[in-house]
Amino acid sequence: MRVLVTGGCGFIGSAAVRFLVGAGHHVLNLDKLTYAGDLRTVAAVAGSPNYRFRKMDILDQRGVAASFKDFAPQAVFHLAAESHVDRSIDDPGIFVDTNLRGTFVMLHTALNFWNQLNREQQANFRFIQVSTDEVYGSLGAEGFFTETTVYGPNSPYSASKAGADHLARAWYTTYGLPTIISNCSNNYGPFQNREKLIPTIIRKALSSQTIPIYGQGQNVRDWLYVDDHIAALLAICEKGKAGSSYNIGGYNEISNIDLATAICALLDRRRPRSDGRRHAERIQFVTDRPGHDYRYAIDAAKAKRDLGWQPQESLQSGLSKTVDWYLDHLNWTMDVVSSEDRLGLGSLPKPL
Length: 352
Ligand code: NAD
Fold this sequence. Notes:
The structure is a single chain. The chain is α/β, with parallel strands linked by helices. Helix content is 41%, strand content 16%. It has helices at residues 11-22, 61-71, 85-90, 93-114, 119-124, 156-175, 197-206, 226-239, 256-270, 301-307, 315-328, 330-333, 339-342, and strands at residues 2-6, 26-31, 51-55, 75-78, 126-132, 179-184, 186-188, 211-214, 220-225, 245-248, 253-255, 283-286. A 7-stranded parallel beta sheet has the order 3-2-1-4-5-6-10, with helices on both faces. Strand 1, helix 1 and strand 2 (26-31) form a beta-alpha-beta unit. Helix 1 (11-22) crosses helix 8 (226-239) and helix 4 (93-114) packs parallel to helix 6 (156-175). The two termini are 24 Å apart.
């Protein structure tokens, strides 16, 4: 399969690229290399004849159109996005540009390309809009998001993703472009950006700094190991119904304070503090994020029933692997590399 991946130098996109290239698929990766994009994430496959990279802003309609023409993808995995909720509160404009208008450019360029295909190629083509459970808004203590839950986004990030999802649905309903939306819970695993919760907990603990947790740490998230997400995207691409959406989750609900404590306990065993104290003693509650959703929880029954997909990794084993990875890749975790290294020009971390 020829897959055009956007955002393939980010956390989840790079896991998709590594998996797809490793499985023998042909991949064209379009990524602007923002602060969140890093060529080290795809270093393991950069030399493969199946892999091509183009540094590109998805807002560059001409460049995107030329890429469709040259590469002739059979599927698009659209992951390029501004992804950090806190940044969206400080600077929402770029979230609207990239997530909403960028998705419009991707959809409309895909449609122009798709219109040139024959009927069989059109029927087999898929545009996967990779989205989040945050579009549904906040849950109370009970219940789960299903595919029929009404969207109610609360942050500029989730609102921009919700708008992009609506565009994807409209491009199917109005123009027939075979789009499918995946709404996935919080991912974790290797190569996540340092600013996200789990890498932050590990980095702060290792550098003997306080570990900041919003509010009283009671907000609940569902966590999915990133490779399980990639397996879901593959299943959606191969078996998903055009025009529909699938909820993807790990059935791993945990409060932020319990998550931080669990990671600290793993670090106590793998990298004990020199003063003999426990890493969790460095956890400090900080002023809550405005509009902080209380709880997200996914009902992924449809994905299991229709796609045969279910998560393989338990939170316990996934967190353990993840902590090990960040300890084995301290140049990533602590971000002590030069900008040349970050652009893949210098020494690379050891292969995956
Ligand atoms: P990330 O921030 O790690 O990576 C985003 C990537 O997109 C980066 O490589 C960046 O350079 C690229 N990018 C940003 N703007 C671009 C532009 N204008 N043109 C081209 N490339 C651009 O994000 P992530 O955590 O890997 O998330 C990937 C996707 O999955 C996003 O769409 C996000 O909404 C969605 N998602 C993430 C999670 C999660 O837990 N991280 C959960 C569900 C869904």
